[in-house]
Amino acid sequence: MTRLSGKIVIATHNLGKLAEMQKMLAPYGLECVSAGELGLEEPEEVGTTFIENALIKARFAAVESGLPALADDSGLCVEALGGRPGVYTADWAERHWYEGPEGRDWFMAMGKVEGLLCEQGPDVGRAAHFACVLALAWPDGVDAVYEGRVDGTMTWPPRGRLGFGFDPVFIPRGYDQTFAEIPPADKARISHRADAFAKLVADQFG
To answer: If you read the UniProt record, what top EC class would you report for this enzyme, in one word (predicted)?
Structure first.
């Protein structure tokens, strides 16, 4: 079995995801470099599932860099919306030219979800979950996939400033705070990414 060691590419241009993943990998002696630092392009995410898109990004970064690559594909799935926004989570937060390549309007995206829920009436169910797939790929074509999930409910208005994306409107099960109100160290233990990462660690370093 191929295992991780040495230098690895974090196949993302999202600074929030990059910081989380670097912190998670820190205890395992890996030298992490981002796709952005290497000047790699972002491949077109044409998959219809989190697994497909995570593999597209990981395989592209591995081939282009000649190094093992780790990619994340994650999103918010709201039951009353048929699982939307799902794999299109980032697309619901449109880019603005004046905010640069990192700029997405997440408040607008949160408003879209809330608006669609409100259209269904005051008794609409607010169950939701964040899904995460971590894909590892090596330049020789070997790859591995790890899936994570955290369940919770949607709330409005947004609360908290500690998270990113849809964090301010998502309350994880068993908590009364949103992901954006929960300290990052606590979120890191219970998040969908943490769930997927625990499975990666068990497989790669266990």
So the answer is: hydrolase
pLDDT in tens, 165-192: 899 999 999 999 999 999 988 988 899 9
Q: What is the pLDDT of residues 114-158, one digit of tens each?
A: 999 999 999 999 999 999 999 999 999 999 999 999 999 999 999
Interatomic CA distance for residues 10 and 59, integer angstroms? 11
Token output for 171 = 């309350």
User: Known binding site for substrate: residues?
Assistant: 12-17, 74, 164-167, 187, 192-193
Asked if residues 71 and 58 have their Cβ atoms less than 8 Å apart, the reply is: yes
List, by residue number, the catalytic residues: 73
